[in-house]
Amino acid sequence: MAAYHLGPLAQPVRAILFDKTPATNWSLGWHQDRTIAVRARADVPGYGPWSTKQGIQHVEPPFKITEAMMTLRLHLDDTLTDNAPLLIAPGSHRLGRIPADAIADTVARYGTLACLADAGDVWSYATPTLHASGAAQGERRRRVLQVDYAATALPEPLVWLGL
C-alpha cells in the first residue's frame, strides 16, 4: 500500500501501538503529526525543535518531508463510535502546515470523518492530515498499530529510526 502511493523506495520509518482500554484511556485534540523519529540527534539546518518521546529522538523536519509521508493504521480490534475512532478533517493535508490558531476553523470548514473499522481493516492517510481522538466511552479495547512511511532520505547525518 505504501509503495503504491509513495513509490518503490517507501520504507516504514516509525511504528506506534495504541492500546485504549478502560484503564488506559485518553483523548487527543486536533493536530498534525509534525515530528519524525530519528536514530540520533544531529544539528541540521531547518530541523527542529527536538524532543524525546519514550527515549526516542524526535525532530520537526521541514514540512516537505512530512507532506511526502503516509500513515497506515492496522486495526487489531473493532473501532466503533464508542471506543474512540480516529477523527480526521478530510482534505486538510493539502493545506500545508496549519498554524495552531487556525486548526479549529479548518476542522469546521473541512468537516470531520470518524474512521470506523473492523478488526483487520487498514486505514491510510497523508501524514499531515488534521486528526484527533476522543476518550473511549465503552468498555471494549481499541488497539491500533500505526506505521508511518517515507520514501525520501534525510540529510546526513540524520537517519530515520525505522522499525
Portion in helices: 10-25%
Query: With helices defined by DSSP (H or I, 4 residues minimum), what is the helix count?
Result: 3
| Distance between the amino and carboxyl termini | 17 Å
- Low-confidence spans: pLDDT under 50, at least 5 residues? none
Overall geometry comes to globular
One letter per element, helices H and strands E, the order comes to HEEEEEHEEHEEEE
Largest sheet: 4 strands, antiparallel
The average pLDDT is 95
Radius of gyration: 16 Å
Order of the strands making up the biggest sheet: 1-11-6-9
What proportion strand? Answer: 25-35%
**Number of strand segments:** 11
Structural class given helices, strands, pairing?
mainly beta
Structure description:
This protein is mainly beta and 163 residues long. The protein has 3 helices and 11 strands, in the order αβββββαββαββββ. The protein has helices spanning 2-6, 63-66, 103-110, and strands spanning 11-20, 28-31, 36-38, 50-53, 56-59, 70-75, 86-88, 113-115, 122-126, 131-133, 142-150. It is globular, with a radius of gyration of 16 Å. The model has no long low-confidence stretch (mean pLDDT 95).
